[in-house]
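Practice record 12: protein with manganese (II) ion.
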Amino acid sequence: MGKQMLELKEAGKKLLEGQNIALTVHVSPDGDAIGSVLGLARILTGLGKNVTIFVDDIIKGFNFLPDVDKIKTETNLEGIKEPLRFDLLCVLDCSTLERIGRVADCIKADHVLNIDHHASNEGFAEFSYIDENAAATAEILCELVETMQWELDALTATYL
Ligand SMILES: [Mn+2]
């Protein structure tokens, strides 16, 4: 599959093209990973998308954020025997496919989009938007919201 670097607005359009969208982040998720994935999930859900979040880990330290418990974590992944079908897998805050752990085996997606800020990211995904000058993936998502003229509510802003 060919690999393509996208402009930010094009990355937004890829998100709009999918209806059933899986979101994931790296193992040992930090605040940027969890905030970004919950924020983007809320935006996309608001746009009428069916969104499922997968993280191959137990999430520690972020229970103060609403809906952290809706993320399919390590324990849920063990129950997935056949890959689940999605239009799009969007990988956030992650510079290699290995870093999403077993989520890679649980999902079969028509397209894969990576949004990240790590300088080490060489563009592993089918579509990538990488801004190594961004301090965080959440910062990129704030720009994406502006570029796409998506609505940013208080909870989404809290996540990001
Ligand atoms: Mn980050």
